[in-house]
Amino acid sequence: MQTKIIAVGSTKFERFIHRWGVSFLIGEDTLFDTFGDPRVLLNNMRKFNVDATKIKHIILSHDDWDHSRGLWYLLDERKDITVYICPGCKQSIKEKMVLSGVKVVEARKAILIKEGIYSTGELYGESGGRKIYEQSVVIGTVDGLAVICGCAHPGVVNIVRQVKESFQRDVRLLIGGFHLKDNSEGMNKRIIKELQELGVRRIAPMHCTGKYATGLMRQAFGQGFIEAKEGGSIAL
Asked: Which of 18, 77, 121, 214 yields a CA-CA distance of 20 to 30 A from 167?
């Protein structure tokens, strides 16, 4: 199985122009997050030959705009999609989903999305004084687990540790936004060390990870560092 990076915004300029967020296609029918600019998402899906009619599962890490705005453009005239959200998702977004006619599943605890793909269930984090409820995706592989994070507001180390405890397997591959962009160098070095001690061997940082933390990960993981680019695929 592979995950394709449909859209990613990682730089300060991309954030300034609202070309910000992430979106991943896992296999052919599971979409994790829907980016912040619907035009970019839809254009990239066409450019990268993604067949939107095959998408049956959409998982929203959390309800921030940069992970959810593309959703509504994918739900137009589609009633056969299941959307997985956190129970703490904004009520207005829940109601809009229900009105769209799709099936909505609230992932309070770890749940199966489809064979080999799971949600961590709702985890709690904070950012700028805001309460944020977020889920990540867990994928079983022959070498261990792969985890894909949207923003990792609950703490990337905490996410990996909880997944390891819940699934009783090591997390070998970590992909996504890790929310380290505002951390000190010392703090990020400690986080990288903890991830390695937990068993992470390959890593693909992007989005809110920040360029300095990404540079530290490149040094620390060596050949296990994966360059994340739009349109690129990562073998799971």
From this structure: 214
pLDDT classification of 130: cutoffs 50, 70, 90: confident
pLDDT tens across 177-223, in order?
999 999 999 999 999 999 999 999 999 999 999 999 999 999 999 99
Residue 119, classed as helix, strand or coil, is: strand
State how far the Cα of 201 lies from the Cα of 170, in Å rounded to an integer: 10
CA distances, 226 to each of 15, 25, 31 (Å):
22, 17, 20
Residue 25 structure tokens: 């296609």
What is the three-class DSSP state of 131?
A: strand
Measured over the CA atoms of residue 95, residue 121, residue 127 and residue 66, the dihedral's sign is negative
* Cβ-defined contacts of 188-194 (< 8 Å, 24+): 188/212, 188/213, 188/216, 189/216, 191/156, 191/157, 192/216, 192/217, 192/220, 193/220, 194/157
Q: Please tell me the pTM assigned to this model.
A: 0.96
State how far the Cα of 210 lies from the Cα of 218, in Å rounded to an integer.
12
pLDDT at 126: 80
- pLDDT (0 to 100) of residue 202: 98
**What is the rounded CA–CA span in Å between residue 104 and residue 95?**
10
Of 37, 80, 68, 57, the C-alpha closest to 134 is: 68
Query: 180 CB contacts (<8 Å, ≥6 apart)?
Result: 156, 187, 188, 191, 205, 208, 209, 210, 213
Contact of 24 with 229, CB cutoff 8 Å: no
**Where do we find the tokens 């609950």?**
154
